[in-house]
Amino acid sequence: MGATASILWRYTPLLICLALWEIVATAGPFANQLLPDVKQVAEALWALILDGEIVNHGLRSLYRAAMGFGLAIIVGSAAGLLMATFRPVRLLVNPIVQIFYPMPKSALIPVMMIWFGLGDMSKIVLIFIGCLLPVVISSYNGARGVNPFLIWSARSLGASRATTLVQIVLPAAMPELLNGIRTALAFAFILMVSSEFVIAKDGFGYLISQLGDGGAYAAMFAVILVVAMVGFTADRLYGAFVRHQLRWREP
Amino acid sequence: MSGQSSSGSALPADEVGIEIRDVSHHYGGRNGQGGVTALDHINLQIRPNEFHALLGPSGCGKSTLLYLIGGFIPVQSGTIATARGTVTGPGPERGIVFQNFALFPWKTVLQNALYGLEKLGLPKKEREERARHFIDLVHLTGFENAYPSQLSGGMQQRAAIARTLAVDPEILLMDEPFGALDAQTRRVMQEELRAIFERTRKTVVFVTHDVQEAVFLADRISIMSARPGRIQHVLDVAVDRSGGDEVMKRPEFVEIGEHIWGLVRDQAIAATRGAH
């Protein structure tokens, strides 16, 4: 079986979904307005691409997600490493992490609006907060699980404590940390769209809710599909990145 | 940087490799009460450039003593000093090889061997040459770009030895380095280690519970007892080692082995029965 055939085979379930959608939309119990058929959605998508609207809104959203997600990776990784290394930091930060971890971050959307307004900042801060905890926890767990003999080896080879933290503990924590970052990536997309529903003048979420309110259901579905594709692509790219980073694990 | 302070050492470099004076160590418990006494008033002088084995049953504290010399765990009571002074922390003049290899798994063999050389601040070209030289010394040429996960246990331990030797430590600490290897590989590694020792002549402290291994490798053997860990005997293994593998069959080796086995036998039995 060729590579192309193999990919086709893997995504056959998606084609089946597409076919079912078409059948339900054209012959099913829904009015065509509520569930537009595939052709209508494709046309709406093409129109959105042609007038550049979806690209502009999309770039706005992705900018916010990238900023919040990126900041969360930097701050979260460092916080987890420091928690694992220094007891006072652990005692200070651990209870806060425990309390805030199960809290749905979307509950903070109104607070973000009051504090940071309708601009980018409210979304970036929300995404940052949402992505932070999975990164902190995975970094902390990864760093705590480091084989102490690796640290001892590095120290006896002339590495200082600080150097060991960056050159040994961080890479040793990487498999676990990269897992946590993957969770954070999904959170980033969820919070990006949901916050834009509520507090935004642009972005994917804003576009979806605006089109829905205006009754342009085909276009609304088109945007939803685009968001799903963007999320899927980001996750795939991230997966490839992780495989490259952790290539040393494969025998 | 070296993890040592030069004060408190009255020992000339050429007379003592490592001076262990009245070292005790406890795990758990409070203020020395309760818990386990891993080491009980250890006194030992390890000569410079000798191959010294610490032999004893599991739980006798031999690894603890090695980690104390390495400076990985703080000395609770007593002092440990080398020619550089009192040990207060790890330092590159005391290299270590662990039983589980402890290679950096995200680095290739070459990158592992380069790690300590980077810390020494050598020029790039010299680092590379030295790393390759030691990889060659342990017969790993051709595997420079392999990751540890791609290597057998024996090859991983060769890489770990190369990494440690590359920084040219004065003292080489070895914590049951061949304990995780199969019997044939272990035998080959023992011969090669002894050959490397003959060529490089470092002070080696080698922890093992294997009598044969200790006799084959070491110039002197400290026999330790368990719970609390004490040094019971220190023996010289003064034999002619030329001849590689055949050495072990010579009567004087067999005799020393039997003699040591007689000394450790009761300890080994006590250890397995959990008696004191």
TrEMBL record, chain A:
Recorded GO cellular component terms are: plasma membrane
Query: What's one Pfam family here?
Result: BPD_transp_1
Q: Where are the transmembrane segments?
A: 12-31, 65-86, 107-137, 185-208, 214-234
What processes does the entry annotate via GO biological process terms? Answer: transmembrane transport
Name all ABC transmembrane type-1 domain ranges. Answer: 58-238
Under the heading InterPro entries, the entry gives: MetI-like, MetI-like_sf
How does the UniProt record describe the way this protein sits in the membrane?
Answer: Multi-pass membrane protein
Q: Which UniProt keywords apply?
A: Cell membrane, Membrane, Transmembrane, Transmembrane helix, Transport
Name assigned to this protein: NitT/TauT family transport system permease protein
Q: Where in the cell is it found?
A: Cell membrane
SUPFAM superfamilies, A to Z: MetI-like
UniProtKB/TrEMBL annotation, chain B:
Q: One MF term from GO for this chain?
A: ATP hydrolysis activity
Q: Which UniProt keywords apply?
A: ATP-binding, Nucleotide-binding, Transport
Report the superkingdom from the record.
Bacteria
Matching entries from InterPro entries are given as: AAA+_ATPase, ABC_transporter-like_ATP-bd, ABC_transporter-like_CS, ABC_transporter_ATP-bind, P-loop_NTPase
Checking CDD domains in the record gives: ABC_NrtD_SsuB_transporters
Question: What Pfam family is a match for this entry?
Answer: ABC_tran
Q: Where is the ABC transporter domain?
A: 18-251
> Record's SUPFAM superfamilies?
P-loop containing nucleoside triphosphate hydrolases
**Assigned protein family:** Belongs to the ABC transporter superfamily.
* Family annotation (PANTHER family): ALIPHATIC SULFONATES IMPORT ATP-BINDING PROTEIN SSUB, TAURINE IMPORT ATP-BINDING PROTEIN-RELATED
**Protein name, as recorded:** NitT/TauT family transport system ATP-binding protein
Which species does this protein come from?
A: Aquabacter spiritensis
